[in-house]
Design a protein that fits this description.
The complex is a heterodimer. Chain A is an all-alpha fold. Helices cover 74% and strands 0% of the residues of chain A. Chain A has 26 helices and no strands. Chain B is an alpha/beta fold. Chain B is built from 11 helices and 13 strands. Bound molecules: adenosine-5'-triphosphate and magnesium ion.
């Protein structure tokens, strides 16, 4: 295929920082998990009881997946990485493919390439190669990190295989989603939705009696591979087949559409602007309207689905041993409360992505010169800033309200009241505001930093577990605003941290505002 | 100057190590169409962005419509309309929606003129942002600007994507705007457009003004090329200062002469007996090639310095 090699090398070069940083963080995480676990448990009995206690906590099973062999040190050490951190592998693969396909088309750069002696299929195939090669790189490094951390070689390799599989599926998902819309952001949102659904299906399958749901998700396959004892190698074939199928469909769709076009032709719209489109705030709301609707629906559906696990907890753990254990840790009620607290903490991270996307889009508007067009009218700087800030801050609050309400509905019949579930979601708002505020500060510093929000989310997500593994001082984990949120409903609503987070967010937003009014636009 | 709509003195703007504007001066009087010319990267767009209060100046004086564009941007922007060099539209808004929202953000637009402009520019206002061609994107911004009731138009290469017919529609509206007392700052690389539209011209190079004046004045500052057939070989032509590229072949001479020295040069020809003669005034192209092409150290040869010398 003409130009494939060159294009691939060029893309790898352009994304080397993204690939390098992401790979380094994930490898470090795998290594510290592997190296730390051995010293954590003095006797095999300790280790087994740790694994069993994870299995009895639906919150942890929903988050991490179950531990199939409680005697396996490797499986215990890789609890978080097998499924939860595999999401980051999939996300990187999607981000890379999207970046080198639809983003290029939307910006018009793909036309430059299309005008060269390059096979028309080459850009997509090359992006798939970039995703696959990156997944392979991460897998190899993960295997090395596990072995270096003292885990068995065979298990390490199989585990790395599960990451490779997830990365390949992510590549296919990215390739397919990039074909759908002319708008790179819409494509990204659809892909993110796919990841969320796959994750939620596995969480439901692992924690309810509908185990077959886990078998519909590549994240479920990663657990079912049983990398650490008695591996089922054929499970990896499922990943491979799915990845190939998705990529093939993507190629087929690509061949059927024009460069830069979506699957469906653009329809004409109104010839005049509605009178409500009268200021920069309304304009920004209009620009994000579709995204806001999609997010609202997604939060409602995911919230209800995730919360549906809660009421069934008592029954699926209904064995003599586990009931005994459960009573000791506070009974079914306490278990459900912990699960709700864990679910809303995941929801908070997902909803933060909305803020990152709004602020990142604000930076894009400025780079593309649209902010300039607005500021050349009688619009104040403060207004264009507020248009982004209010949407980011108000949007996440709204989405958490929706998530909380949907979870309350989903959890009907649980020992946790609807009010408690809603409260659990609402107390996350100040922490997400801090993340949004920091992203706004980055945008206000320079438009090209506007995407920093995404990095912040990943960093805050990882800093707690990393600090724990590396036994860093307590304040390191405390850098993450999420760590200060009271674990409602398991813990009471404590006003202090919430006020503190809100005040911190306010100070950061004010600083961002001040800076935005002082700096060059463009 | 009281009636200056734009007054820039000693304006400096740096981006890191790049000095985009380096002591730049510009003055645009009320009611004139002012051409703004210069090679790529000379600082035209940067100047316009400073005038819009989008960029903060490092040093110098900038007055726009009697106010400070940085601190009073919103009030001043009610009285002006801007067309950027590269128009980017919102992907999910139609051209018609963009025209209306930009008009409202500016404080209203003339509904009748909006309809008329859309018809004259043959613009389909129902298309979404990304399905417009480059020229049509530009038309959206032009309709939004020309339909506004303002005193000043800031146009940054507004016609670079327009076809010749649309170009003439654009000229017609700019002329109409000027006739009603409006002021225009027009940055452009299209010399024919500048020649037809502009009353005065400023040329910027490497962030400095190298020339400013009416086209007649600028012409006066450059060379006229002369070809003549004489009765006798001319005497003393080479001694006249300001004669360049002299080529004498017997009684046939060809040379270029700085326009202020034209009279002296023709005097010499006259004494040698003129049989035929053509004197071609410099084309605008030549005028600009001189300013664009020279490197700055060769600035001694520029007419401005010669005149003051
Ligand atoms: N935001 C920026 N950051 C860094 N450098 C910049 C920035 N904007 C402009 N420059 C630099 O300032 C100089 C002047 O640029 P400007 O866009 O004003 O040129 P121009 O006269 O409009 O050119 P053209 O005719 O190509 O449009 C160039 O060297 C450019 O690279
Ligand atoms: Mg320019």
């Amino acid at each position: 295929m003409t130009g494939l090699g060159r294009l691939t090398r060029f893309s790898l070069r352009r994304s080397r920082i993204l690939i390098g940083a992401w790979t380094a963080v994930l490898t470090l995480f795998v290594y510290t998990s592997a190296a730390a676990t051995d010293s954590l448990y003095k006797t095999p009995a300790d280790q087994i009881s740790a694994a069993e206690s994870i299995n009895t906590s639906s919150a942890l099973v929903a988050l991490y997946g179950p531990i199939l062999d409680v005697t396996s040190l490797g499986e215990l050490a890789m609890t978080k990485t097998t499924v939860t951190y595999a999401v980051l592998v999939m996300a990187l693969a999607i981000a890379l493919v999207r970046r080198h396909t639809r983003v290029e088309e939307e910006s018009g750069r793909a036309e430059l390439i299309g005008g060269l002696a390059v096979d028309p299929r080459a850009p997509l195939v090359s992006a798939v190669l970039v995703g696959a090669l990156t997944s392979l790189l991460i897998a190899v490094l993960a295997a090395v990190a596990d072995i270096a951390g003292g885990l068995p070689v065979a298990g390490s390799v199989w585990f790395a295989g599960s990451w490779l599989g997830v990365g390949l599926v992510g590549t296919g998902v990215g390739a397919l989603c990039a074909q759908l819309s002319p708008n790179a952001r819409t494509c990204g949102a659809v892909a993110a939705g796919v990841v969320a659904v796959l994750y939620a299906m596995r969480a439901l399958g692992d924690t309810t009696s509908a185990h077959w749901l886990s078998w519909l998700s590549p994240f479920g396959w990663s657990t079912q591979l049983r990398a650490w004892s008695d591996p089922r190698g054929w499970v990896l074939l499922l990943d491979l087949l799915l990845a190939v199928a998705l990529s093939a469909v993507a190629l087929g769709l690509r061949a059927r559409r024009d460069l830069g076009a979506g699957l469906f032709p653009e329809r004409p719209g109104p010839a005049v602007g509605s009178p409500r489109l009268a200021d920069a705030l309304a304009l920004n709301l209009k620009v994000h309207a579709t995204s806001l609707v999609v997010w609202t629906v997604a939060c409602a559906v995911l919230g209800a689905l995730m919360a549906a696990i809660v009421p069934s907890i008592g029954s699926i753990l209904d064995s003599a041993g586990t009931r005994d254990l459960m009573e000791r840790i506070g009974g079914v009620g306490a278990l459900q409360e912990t699960l709700v607290a864990a679910l809303v903490s995941v929801a908070a991270i997902i909803v933060s992505c909305f803020a990152a996307s709004v602020v990142g889009h604000g930076g894009g508007e400025e780079n593309d010169g649209r902010t300039e067009e607005v500021l050349a009218t009688a619009t104040e700087r403060s207004t264009t800033f507020l248009a982004v800030a209010l949407l980011a801050l108000g949007g996440v609050a709204w989405l958490l309200v929706v998530t909380g309400a949907a979870m309350a509905v989903g959890a009907v019949g649980a020992a946790v009241s609807a009010g408690q579930v809603l409260a659990a979601a609402l107390v996350q708002i100040p922490a997400v505001w801090v993340v949004a505020a920091l992203a706004l500060l980055a945008l206000s510093w320079h438009s090209r930093w506007a995407v920093a929000g995404w990095g912040l989310i990943v960093a805050f997500f990882l800093v707690g577990p990393l600090a724990e593994l590396l036994q860093l001082p307590g304040w390191v984990a405390g850098l993450s605003p999420y760590s200060h949120v009271p674990k409602v409903p398991a813990d009471p609503v404590s006003v202090g941290p919430l006020l503190g987070l809100t005040a911190a967010a306010a100070v950061v937003v004010a600083t961002a505002w001040w800076r935005y009014r002082e700096r060059d636009i463009g | 100057m009281n009636d200056a709509i734009i007054e820039i003195r000693e304006l400096t703007k740096t981006f890191g190590a790049t000095r985009a504007l380096d002591g730049f001066d510009l003055s645009v009087a009320e009611g004139e169409v002012h051409g703004f010319l210069g090679p790529n990267g000379a600082g035209k767009s940067t100047t316009i962005r400073v005038l819009l209060g989008l960029l903060r100046k490092d040093a110098g004086e900038v007055r726009l419509l009697g106010g400070d564009p940085w601190s009073h941007a919103p009030e001043l922007h009610r009285r002006l309309a801007y067309v950027p060099g590269e128009v980017n539209l919102w992907p999910n808004l139609t051209g018609g929606q963009v025209i209306d929202i930009l008009g409202r953000l500016r404080g209203g637009l003339d509904e009748k003129r909006r309809q008329e402009l859309i018809a004259r520019f043959e613009l389909d206002p129902t298309k979404k942002g990304r399905s417009y061609s480059k020229g049509n994107r530009q038309k959206v911004a032009l309709v939004a600007a020309l339909a506004a009731d303002v005193d000043l138009l800031l146009l940054d290469e507004p016609t670079s994507g327009l076809d010749p017919i649309m170009d003439s529609v654009f000229r017609e509206y700019v002329e109409r705007f000027r006739d009603q007392g409006g002021t225009v700052l027009l940055s452009s690389h299209i010399l024919a457009e500048v020649e037809r539209l502009c009353d005065r011209v400023s040329i910027i190079r490497a962030g400095r003004r190298v020339e400013s004046g009416s086209l007649a004045e600028l012409r006066h500052l450059t060379r006229t090329s002369v070809v003549a057939e004489l009765a006798r070989p001319p005497a003393g032509l080479a001694e006249i200062s300001g004669v360049h590229d002299l080529d004498v072949e017997g009684t046939r001479v060809a040379f270029e002469v700085d326009t202020p020295r034209l009279d002296a040069a023709v005097g010499v020809l006259h004494r040698a007996g003129i049989r035929t003669m053509t004197a071609t005034p410099p084309t605008l192209e030549e005028l600009f090639l001189r300013h664009y092409g020279d490197d700055l150290s060769a600035g001694e040869g520029s007419p401005e310095t010669e005149e003051t010398a």
